[in-house]
Design goal:
The complex is a heterodimer of chains A (about 190) and B (about 500). Chain A is of the alpha+beta class. Chain A has two domains: about 1-75, no CATH class; about 80-185, Cupredoxins -  blue copper proteins (Immunoglobulin-like), CATH 2.60.40.420. In chain A, about 35% of the residues lie in helices and about 30% in strands. Chain A has four helices and nine strands; from the N terminus they run ααααβββββββββ. With about 500 residues, chain B is an all-alpha fold. Helices cover about 70% and strands about 0% of the residues of chain B. A two-stranded antiparallel sheet of chain B has the order 1-2. The longest helix of chain B is centred in the N-terminal third of the chain and has 36 residues, at about 65-100. The chains are: A alpha+beta (about 190), B mainly alpha (about 500).
Chain lengths: ~190, ~500
């Protein structure tokens, strides 16, 4: 369930979840108090204060709920989990230069847990991996001049061709900076 | 007649928008703001035309170089000389009328010159070949020159332009606001609506100026060093620390992020000041000044360090702890927004609303701003950041926040316009402006967010992959409606008629 929520489309629905009730309330309040009944409201101040409390409680619950739920997706947590489990970690080094990637291993077995370590040799680049169905799985920011690589751990479960794109604008051929990973069936 | 009034009078077409009213003796608070606002709309026209260059290159399969030229100029023109300058113009007019201080002298003149000269130089640099996007993407300017993609001269011209724009935003404008608030003699004849710093409608002005000054100082230091080195004033060896990408990027985003937050704080404050003037029962008070001020303080405190969310996907170079801090602070701004939402709803509910175009424009801009806030919170969450960073979601967020705040300022401008010009606007055209903006603004925002959810990259001249052209077409459709709404607003100003009746209510800011 959480895995579905914390996807690109999950983000869109979450935004609508927050926006739609707000927008509906806005149009209701403005229409009601400017067209239907624009006179002073008879609603007691105490009632409004009670509503204020309820409203802030709802906002606070969403705040805490979403951010607690997202903890398991933190890279630190994933790295700690990978370190404590006995699963072998496949290391893939990525080096980005305008406008190409140098990837140490482009063929990975399905089910493998991979640690991508990326560096940039010139300017800002991104390393984004797309599922064969077109959705983005993750992206990493590669900044030149850093001592340590940017890293991310990911487990590929489905075989197929996974496109790699640069998502940090890096000049006039940025859109052509692409590569591919092949996830093969586990023998 | 001030020099600002003279420039407006001599400006073709756009000068007709702001015939500064000298009859009321308010020229000293009207002239420079009117000139800045007029200039901002010239830049809006430039940004609008360039905005359509991007989809045009994709739809008609043109040279992708044009896409990146349009990308850089459209973003830069929209964010700085349009949106920021509009805010400066309307904000200064508000401040002047609230504290009774003239907006004259070298500070407003330099604020105007640095912003427009800087933006013009950046435009020249882009036309010389520099294509670095709105946020410079440092060290791309230098790398591009080394690769021979553009010339070093274009980098020097571009950096000089950016430096002047930053000097306006980080130093001159905050100094101008602080000077007006705390120094100089108050002139009773210039007071239109006296306000103190305890007033929610005034507090945001000062908070925003301080945020710009404080959050921008590191970038001024870094920028001065880099520009000094480019001109050979400082040896390159002494500037090497500032040319480190990590130094530049962090200094840039501490400022760039807080620039948007400061503008949001300021425009929320302006809404707090304007809404009570349109309450149906004539109460002229918010539901609660304390709640309104608390919202501004929460927005201030949480927003300052939330810039860390820009580097979530740099892990472990930005430690998880800092990323999570940026995540939580970003969501903290939502608590400030929740207080703000309640204050505005409760105020309208208690006292009723006169739905005139100006206040409706400000309120619809605010609705779009809340939508943008929700999208910003979502993408600031660590889990979602890995799914959305670098996609059209981010472009949607940036475009929406700029357009939403501009709309709010245009709503406030609608209210100030009669005082500045002695003319009134057509309410029918004003109503259509609000309707078109509502459809165009919300439609474009949701289209761009949906494109990001589908994985469509931002700043990417290949929309024909993965079916993304569908989202591109949607963005163009709603973008055209948005452009039509802005054109209607400008047309309304050009066709404004003289007010024959006494100023009365209109002379309160």
């Amino acid at each position: 369930m959480l895995d579905m929520l914390f996807t690109g489309w999950g983000a869109f629905w979450m935004t609508l979840f927050m926006l739609v009730p707000f927008a509906a309330m806005f149009f209701y309040v403005v229409y009601r108090k400017s067209v239907t009944d624009s006179g002073p409201s008879a609603t007691p101040r105490a009632t409004l204060s009670r509503l204020e409390g309820i409203w802030l409680t709802v906002a606070f619950v969403i705040f805490v709920g979403v951010n607690l739920a997202s903890l398991k997706f933190m890279p630190l947590i994933k790295a700690a989990h990978a370190a404590t489990s006995n699963q072998p970690l496949h290391e893939v080094d990525v080096s980005a230069t305008s406008w190409a990637f140098d990837i140490s291993n482009r063929q990975i077995e399905a089910g493998s847990t991979v640690r991508f370590s990326g560096r940039s040799k010139d300017t800002m680049h991104g390393f984004a991996v797309y599922h064969p169905d077109g959705r983005m799985l993750f992206t990493m920011m590669l900044m030149p001049g850093l001592k340590n690589p940017t890293t991310l751990i990911h487990t590929f479960n489905e075989p197929g061709k996974y496109k790699v794109r640069c998502l940090e604008y890096c000049g006039i051929a940025h859109h052509a900076m692409m590569d591919e990973l092949t996830i093969v069936k586990n023998n | 007649m001030t020099i600002a009034t003279a420039i407006i009078q001599k400006t073709p077409i756009f000068g007709r928008m702001f015939p500064v009213d000298k009859s009321t003796g308010l020229e000293e608070i009207n002239a420079w703001p009117a000139l800045m606002i007029m200039a901002s709309f010239i830049w809006l026209a430039v940004a609008g035309l360039l905005g359509f260059v991007m989809p045009a290159t994709q739809i008609f399969d043109l040279n992708t170089d044009h896409y990146y030229t349009g990308l850089t100029l459209h973003g830069a023109a929209l964010a700085f000389p349009f949106s920021f300058q509009l805010m400066v113009g309307v904000g200064l007019h508000r401040s002047g009328g609230c504290v009774g201080k003239a907006i004259t002298g070298w500070l407003p003149a330099m604020t105007f010159i640095t912003m427009n000269l800087g933006a013009a130089l950046l435009t020249v640099a882009v036309l010389m070949g520099l294509k670095v996007s709105l946020i410079v993407m440092y060290p791309l300017p230098l790398v591009g020159a080394q690769m021979g993609v553009w010339s070093m001269n274009s980098v020097i011209v571009g950096f000089t332009g950016i430096y002047l724009v930053l000097a306006c935003m980080i130093l001159l404008y905050p100094m101008l606001v602080l000077k007006m608030m705390f120094f100089g003699k108050k002139r009773p004849e210039l007071v239109l609506s006296a306000r103190t710093l305890n007033d929610p409608g005034m507090l945001g002005m000062i908070l925003a100026a301080l945020v710009l000054l404080v959050a921008g100082t590191p970038l001024v230091i870094v920028g001065t060093t880099v520009v000094g080195a480019l001109y050979g004033i400082i040896p390159m060896s002494m500037a090497s620390w500032a040319t480190e990408p990590v130094v530049f990027q962090y200094a840039f985003f501490i400022f760039a992020h807080n620039l948007m937050e400061a503008m949001a704080i300021m425009v929320t404050s302006a809404l707090y000041a304007t809404l009570p003037l349109y309450l149906a029962d004539g109460t002229r008070k918010l539901f609660s000044d304390k709640l309104a001020n608390l919202a501004l303080w929460i927005l201030l405190v949480t927003s300052v360090t939330s810039f860390l969310h820009h580097f979530i996907t740099l892990y472990p170079n930005q430690p998880s702890m800092l990323s999570y801090w940026g995540n939580i602070m970003s969501w903290g701004t939502g608590i400030g927004a929740a207080l703000s939402i309640f204050t505005i709803f409760a105020t309208i509910w208690q006292h009723g609303l006169r739905p005139e175009p100006g206040i409706m424009a400000a309120l619809i801009g605010w609705v779009l701003y809340i939508l943008d806030g929700a999208s910003a919170m979502v993408t600031s969450n660590i889990a979602w950041a890995y799914q959305l960073h670098g996609t059209m979601w981010q472009s949607g967020h940036t475009m929406t926040v700029i357009v939403a705040m501009s709309m709010m300022w245009m709503g406030v401008l609608y209210h100030h316009y009669p005082v500045m010009t002695g003319r009134k606007l057509d309410p029918v055209l004003g109503t259509w402006f609000v309707r078109l903006f509502t459809i165009g603004g919300i439609g474009a925002a949701l289209s761009m967010l949906a494109a990001g959810s589908a994985g469509m990259p931002r700043r990417f001249a290949a929309w024909n992959q993965e079916g993304w052209m569908f989202y591109g077409d949607l963005i163009v459709f709603f973008g055209l409606i948005l452009g039509a709404s802005f054109a209607l607003f400008v047309y309304n100003m050009m066709k404004s008629r003289e007010i024959s009746a006494p100023m009365g209510e209109m002379a309160t800011a």
